[in-house]
Amino acid sequence: MSAQTPDYAQLTADISAHLKPLRTDTPAVMKAFGELGKAAITTGALDEKTKELIALAIGVTQRCDGCIGFHVKALVRLGATKAELEEMLGVATYMGGGPALMYAANALAAWDQFTAAQASA
């Protein structure tokens, strides 16, 4: 892993740890955000995997490494394929241009990290 590529398992763990004070100090807000996330991702007309692909596309276009980490981790858990990931990244790049392409590369790095961790578990 290069100095420029985040360790996505560590990044997501660090973010979760850094959010603990907000969970304590603003519990209603954090509970509402968690409930919103669950409601948004719950299978309906679109399945959970499709919704996670959409969430990751938004994270890529918004240049959010934390979002990339959490949503790639979810996609690996949900059994997404690398081909599905790459097609979505193509659309994200189309919509977000060059900056999104740079974060698409980060999403692929996160994919490699989380799939390697899953394979060794």
UniProtKB/TrEMBL annotation:
Gene3D superfamilies: AhpD-like
InterPro entries given in the database record: AhpD-like, AhpD_core, CMD-like
Domain Carboxymuconolactone decarboxylase-like: start-end pairs: 27-109
Pfam families, per database record: CMD
Name recorded for this polypeptide: Carboxymuconolactone decarboxylase family protein
